[in-house]
Amino acid sequence: MGGPGAGWVAAGLLLGAGACYCIYRLTRGRRRGDRELGMRPSKSAEDLTDGSYDDVLNAAQLQKLLYLLESTEDPVIIERALITLGNNAAFSVNQAIIRELGGIPIVGNKINHSNQSIKEKALNALNNLSVNVENQIKIKVQVLKLLLNLSENPAMTEGLLHAQVDSSFLSLYDSHVAKEILLRVLTLFQNINNCLKIEGHLAVQPTFTEGSLFFLLHGEECAQKIKALVDHHDAEVKEKVLTIIPKI
């Protein structure tokens, strides 16, 4: 797959695939809420990102860093904050602290940033955070948001479909999966099909390797899972499926 964004697209997909099993458990009713801790601005927050602070950050310092990351629009500061967070997320104790501070969505939001380097630093931080099993639940959710955004762009379709994805990704199309997840993965399928039509790739399909997202979404197993959802108890899910089935 070509284009400057191909690397981080693939990285995001591979990161997401590794967390599929945790989503599976989440959608069977296991939900955990983050503790909302108030964050106040601090004049010393930027000092934590200048590269001269070598110690592992404590909870209060991580709180300041997350506030800085959430409040600033300066790309240089954002990138430095993500690097510092990524480095600290390599320590198991901080993986839990960052989650409890509500840091995963803050970092996850940066994977949609227009700056390529910021995207990469955010994915690196999420990758380190994903070592923690509890964190994996929230990080799949973040990657799904990324995939949905990318799937709306015809220019990114081929890159998405070439990316290698674990077959466990298809578990997200099971009927017991939470409504919000089902609607997202069904929309992902729909968006990709629409983009393929726009780009004319349905008539002349490029070569996709086995194990790619294309093979998963256009294989018989995925088709059967989507068709089975026509009997889903939720009306919104059922309506979405009925718009997709004629295209399978």
UniProtKB/TrEMBL annotation:
<dbReference type="GO" id="GO:0005789">
    <property type="term" value="C:endoplasmic reticulum membrane"/>
</dbReference>
<dbReference type="InterPro" id="IPR011989">
    <property type="entry name" value="ARM-like"/>
</dbReference>
<dbReference type="GO" id="GO:0005741">
    <property type="term" value="C:mitochondrial outer membrane"/>
</dbReference>
<keyword id="KW-1000">Mitochondrion outer membrane</keyword>
<feature type="transmembrane region" description="Helical">
    <location>
        <begin position="6"/>
        <end position="24"/>
    </location>
</feature>
<keyword id="KW-0256">Endoplasmic reticulum</keyword>
<keyword id="KW-0472">Membrane</keyword>
<feature type="domain" description="Armadillo repeat-containing">
    <location>
        <begin position="57"/>
        <end position="141"/>
    </location>
</feature>
<keyword id="KW-0812">Transmembrane</keyword>
<keyword id="KW-0597">Phosphoprotein</keyword>
<keyword id="KW-0341">Growth regulation</keyword>
<keyword id="KW-1133">Transmembrane helix</keyword>
<dbReference type="InterPro" id="IPR006911">
    <property type="entry name" value="ARM-rpt_dom"/>
</dbReference>
<dbReference type="InterPro" id="IPR016024">
    <property type="entry name" value="ARM-type_fold"/>
</dbReference>
<keyword id="KW-0496">Mitochondrion</keyword>
<dbReference type="Pfam" id="PF04826">
    <property type="entry name" value="Arm_2"/>
</dbReference>
<dbReference type="InterPro" id="IPR051303">
    <property type="entry name" value="Armcx_regulator"/>
</dbReference>
<protein>
    <recommendedName>
        <fullName>Armadillo repeat-containing protein 10</fullName>
    </recommendedName>
</protein>
<comment type="function">
    <text>May play a role in cell survival and cell growth. May suppress the transcriptional activity of p53/TP53.</text>
</comment>
<comment type="subunit">
    <text>Interacts with the DNA-binding domain of p53/TP53.</text>
</comment>
